[in-house]
Amino acid sequence: WRYSDAIALTFAPAGGLDGSGYVTRTFPFSDVPVASDSRLVFRAHDEYGSSGVAYAGNWIADGVQRVHASFRHTAPEPLVFNARFASVGHFPGASYYSDPVPPNVWTPVTFRIHPGSLQNATYEGSNHGTIFSAIGHMQFGVNIPLSLKGGTTPFTFDMDQVAVSTIPEPATGL
Prior knowledge:
Layout: E1 10-12, E2 22-28, E3 38-45, H1 59-62, E4 66-73, E5 79-87, E6 93-101, E7 107-112, E8 120-122, H2 128-132, E9 135-143, E10 154-165
């Protein structure tokens, strides 16, 4: 897991959701372009070898239904986390949004990965089948509220226990 090709994440050996290790990053929103509404925080790419590339592949054939992760942040208000799943070539991708995550507490988040998911915002001009038949990248970011845009206060973002799941969706859980 990394932030970018040049920036590695920090590994904290203890203090995660179950007391184990987790990844963390600290930065202010002042370095985010004014026109941007979100900031990428964590990346798993096949070319980085993230998580032994265990998440990569054909999620349609594998029956992937959900992606779980736990997040914690130090911003002064609840934040919406986003997830983007894309092919090895990085485009097109599919973007999903969480419910608001409160500050300073580990919060488990589930992204429901199926064509009818109400969390899905875009397939970037493509479709569910095309994107999820060749996943190579997972990215997690945070939506920036207007009240925090451009601020120079650094906030810490933590992530733990990322898992890809084949547990079927309940009929009412779209």
